[in-house]
Specification:
The protein is α+β, with helices and mostly antiparallel strands and 579 residues long. It is built from 20 helices and 23 strands.
Length: 579
Amino acid sequence: MPPWDTKTTPRPYRLQVQRLSLVWAILILSLCGLGFNLYSLQIRRAPALLEQARNQQMIYMRPYIPRRAIVDRAGNLLATDRLIFTLYAHPNQFKISREDVADRLAAPLTQNAQQLLTRLNERESGISVAANLSEEVADQIRALRLDGLELVRQYSRLYPQQELVSDVVGYVDLDHKGQAGLEYTQEKALERDVRTLQMSRAGNGALMPDYLPDGLLGFDDQRLQLTIDMRLQRVARSLLKQQVEAYKAKRGAVIVMDVNDGSLLALACEPTFDPNQYSRFDLKLFKNWAVTDLYEPGSTFKPINVAIALEAGVITGDETFYDAGRIKLETWEISNHDYKDVGGRGDLTIGEILSFSSNVAMVELVKRMNPQQYHEALQNLDLTKPLTIELPGSAAGQLKPVSSFQASPAEVATTAFGQGFSLTPLKLAQLHGAIANGGLLVTPHLVRGLVDENNRLTWEPEDRPVKRVFSPETTEIVRRKMGEVVDAPGGDVVRIPGYQMGGKSGTSQKASPTGGYYDDLKIVSFVATLPLESPQYLVLVVIDEPKGKDLFGSTVAAPLVKSVTEALIAIEGLPPAVP
């Protein structure tokens, strides 16, 4: 019989056995729990715990690296980073009185000592005394050897040319992020590669470098180079500002473009802003309206329509078209701007149509095409596609559907003299560039690429598309007719002795948001290309809502085109066509 038989085993002994069994059970369960926990720590949670340990022991630092500078085509500085300091005061650490500290800081900060004392009395620590201090001022403050002063260094974006190229370059915000212009769109090109520094934390909390990546303590000297010429930009902006103020206009724009590759030598809009103090200006000024805003071009589009008709083969360069002075289409009456003074002019050549800016003769010219053919030709010019320029907000033009052209002859007629559709000033410049360069639709652009200290390209944007829209024969005829505009008696406002140019003015009523057109609001423009035989440059001026008398493209915009062109000739050293 077993000794633990309950019938024969004494009760006290049975209690001891039960207690011992319970203890063993607890021990076994505890060992199982410890084993499971050890398995969990060593096997299941090991990767997570290892990562947590590394995070506690390692610190990854990303030092601030200045943005690359922006320069014009000659290397003149347009935007750069500079080292600045912010001064903080901690009065609870002063070894001298607050009055003495204020007196000593007054000179280097060029501030009133009493005002400084008022600020120092605000609280016991963490007082922001002054910001945007130069290195020279910071050195003067350090030389004072005052306890309780803290100089915090940081980089700030500086635009040394102020408003000169602001609507092109844009600005960065307080976080050093681009918010407008090329600072926004070229963020990747402007930001240098940031290498991470890995550091280990010792047991006492001290940081020790784990390894130093190659090039950590230095950075490349590449700069973002633009196609803009600062000298020409300065002339264009100064003259544009004068003209906008003289006519109390809403705004204006000047575009100077190389017609062969689309590079922009000048792109100025007024009014504009100072990117060094961007917070003081209206948000509307941060865009370049020559790229973002649409308008009806008016008569400056007539040479484009002539090229379309020539390319379609429905007219020839030596044909004439009847100008009745006024015609009626359905319920719409179309007349020339000078009909009340001169009436109809009869048969006109293409050159005369452009010189007199005859709306009626242009309608007769465009009527040679059927509506669908004309609409397809306009679409082929990519009117409804935004330009791929580097600036943000490029707008696509607006053109009514082909059904509207087929339903009403008035739609075709108004489009013939540049109304009823809209585009941006830069798009108009691109189209006239195609007339000038032999029929190629080149891509307007501002960025040449990244260059090193020897001005060698290290990076350039991807290939810019080029599309043929007219034949060289067509554009030669149109250029010759635009030359007749400048050579005509009224062309003296833009004519430059010794130089052969082609040009066309435009004066259009502004469309009303509620339909129709304003009677008293105009947008005037003038476009010129030179040299006429082998064009290289285009100058376009657009003035929005000028006020006063005699408001036409030939009177308001043309004189500005002439002045900018004269500056262009001098800067580029263009020789005259005739002595």
